[in-house]
Specification:
Domain Amidase: 87-412
Oligomer: single chain
Shape: globular
Helix content: 25-40%
Region (Disordered): 508-559
Structural class: alpha/beta
Protein name: Amidase
InterPro entries: Amidase, Amidase_dom, AS_sf, TAT_signal
Biased composition (Low complexity): 519-538
């Protein structure tokens, strides 16, 4: 039996278990109050994960400014004694002090804790990430540091232990610099719980109408704006890959169960995923290598095939001076990928991406087809997720629906989903999974996507990577990315494709210009917009977020 067939069988067995409800509650126990979660046991990861990070060539600009460094470059410099963790933390804190009033990327900043951890790492490195400062999305438990999910429900909650993913990163020597701002309870772009826009796209800091991605907006902005070296987010409806595409990052949503969601405030137990938002494929691979593995507190992580060698997969292969694929790969192009509705700028970049990949020996670009009822399976039946949301938060809805903030209506909507609708939705999900595994992947090895919904519904891995820039309104340079979908537990193949592409392009090395000085930006950004004007330019999940906090207001609310 091939490794792919073993992976598929393990994935189908795990999916059936989760669909039956066994996976419910693996995030945190919500027993009516946020403080009830304090009764949950902590997961101690033991010794640092055995991850080997190779030395890499360090770009000249990094030597002048360590906030420019990729994670791999920072590890290389620290290992060689050319950079201390304390100097890196101080450099990032300096940028936070200057530009956080504009970006509003953080919900909380632990300057003292990060400084102390950096000093300890400089005395004795404790793992492969030894001394690397990270931004953690604010729905991950962080011991002694507020975890609010940017919500009224958890606004005063300070967990007594770390989420498993955070614990693994810290055991590897990672440093928690702060908590990334997010959409309230992970349902929209980053706003206050009542819907006021906070975090911006780091590439368009004075224009809040440019989409910064999904609910992991803060971690994405922190990495793109050089306020953190790397970050972790969560994805239930695109919130790793969308912020990555929007802000010129490489984001990786693993196969369901590959990384633990224990200690993550839940949204949908059949769709919640944890993963990295990073600057390069190699950085994403390093983060995943540390995060991946079984967790006794998360049934979805148990009994799976062993994690692959992600870091090796993310290193480009060269034959002489020419970049080649590590393994032969068929890259599937579905019918909607080159549809005119994408717009001329995006289409040109997608065609250039395909041409670049086709020129790499070992890569073949092939057309793939979808079944006739594809739109139905990935559209209408996507709503069955709403009942899972409601089940987790029902005690708070019963107490006061306003506790759910700007997205209260979507939580209430889950109450009105009938049992027969839910059952039909589960059947549609099973059909979709079969169509993808046997149909789409019968034609290719990885498949390009125009959105994350399909693979979020069925738990398959996705990788987002930058492919260029286009002008949007008055903004001359806004990132454009693309999404690759993979087969169960084949994150390594997605990384191989991304590594080859990034070896022959430099989009991923580009950073946004520093934003205007906060005093000047405050005048521009604080002006409220009318609801109608904001809604006309917002994505559907962003509607209702109507104006931008001033820097002073925001700092008082995110302190």
């Amino acid at each position: 039996m091939s490794a792919r067939e073993v992976n598929r069988r393990a994935f189908l067995a795990g999916s059936a278990t989760v669909a039956a409800g066994v996976g419910a509650g693996v995030g945190v126990p919500l027993l009516g109050t946020a403080t009830a979660a304090q009764a949950a046991p902590a997961f101690a990861p033991g010794r640092a994960p055995e991850v080997k990070i190779p030395d890499v060539a360090v770009r000249p600009q990094v030597l002048a400014d360590p906030t420019e460094a990729t994670l791999a470059e920072a590890v290389t410099l620290i290992r060689r004694g050319k950079l201390t963790s304390l100097d890196l933390v101080h450099a990032l804190l300096d940028r936070i002090g200057t530009y956080e009033p504009v970006y509003l990327a953080f919900n909380a900043i632990d300057a003292d804790g990060a400084t102390a951890a950096a000093r300890a790492q400089d005395r004795r490195r404790t793992g492969p990430l030894g001394g690397i400062p990270l931004c953690i999305k604010d729905n991950y438990y962080t011991a002694g540091l507020p975890t609010t999910a940017n919500s009224f429900v958890f606004q005063d909650f300070v967990p007594p232990y770390d989420a498993t993913s955070v614990a693994r990163l810290k055991a590897a020597g990672g440093i928690v610099l702060g908590k990334g701002q997010m959409g309230p309870l992970a349902t929209t772009r980053a706003t206050t719980p009542n819907g006021t826009v906070t975090t911006v796209n780091a590439w368009t800091p004075t224009d809040i109408t440019v989409d910064p991605g999904g609910s992991s907006t803060g971690p994405g902005c922190a990495v793109a704006g050089r306020l953190a070296t790397s970050a972790i987010g969560t994805q239930t409806g695109g919130s790793i890959v969308n912020p990555s595409n929007a802000q010129n990052l490489t984001g990786l949503k693993p196969t369901m169960g590959r990384t633990s969601i224990y200690g993550v405030i839940p949204l949908s137990y059949t769709r919640d995923h944890s993963g990295p938002l990073a600057r390069t494929a190699l950085d994403a691979a390093i983060m995943l290598a540390v995060m991946a593995g079984p967790d006794p507190n998360d049934v979805r992580t148990q009994g799976l095939p062993a994690p692959a060698d992600y870091i090796t997969s993310a290193l480009p292969v060269r034959r002489g001076k020419q970049v080649v694929m590590r393994r032969r790969v068929r890259i599937g192009v579905p019918p909607d990928y080159l549809a005119a509705s994408a717009g001329a700028g995006v289409l040109a970049l997608r065609r250039a991406f395909l041409a670049t990949m086709a020129a790499i020996p070992g890569a073949t670009v092939v057309d793939v087809t979808y079944p006739d009822d594809w739109d139905l399976m990935t559209g209408v039946f996507n709503n069955v997720r709403l009942s899972e949301r409601t089940e987790e938060m029902l005690p708070f809805l019963q107490r006061d629906p306003k506790l759910l903030g700007v997205s209260s209506l979507s939580w209430l909507q889950g109450l009105f989903l009938s049992g027969d609708e839910w059952v039909t939705g589960q059947r549609a999900k099973t059909r979709l999974l079969r169509e993808v595994l046997d149909g789409v992947f019968g034609q290719c090895d990885v498949v390009l996507q125009t959105g994350p919904t399909q693979f979020d519904q069925i738990g398959l891995p996705e990788l987002a990577l930058p492919i260029g820039f286009q002008a949007v309104g008055a903004n001359p340079k806004v990132p454009v990315g693309t999404i690759l979908g993979g087969q169960p537990y084949e994150e390594d193949l997605l990384l191989e494709v991304a590594a080859a592409y990034q070896a022959v392009t430099d989009w991923h090395d580009q950073r946004p210009a520093d934003p205007p000085a906060p005093a000047a930006a405050r005048t521009t950004l604080a002006a409220p917009q009318s609801r109608a004007a904001a809604a006309s330019r917002a994505t559907p999940e962003e509607r209702g977020a109507v104006h931008r906090l001033s820097a002073t207001e925001a700092l008082s609310r995110t302190a």
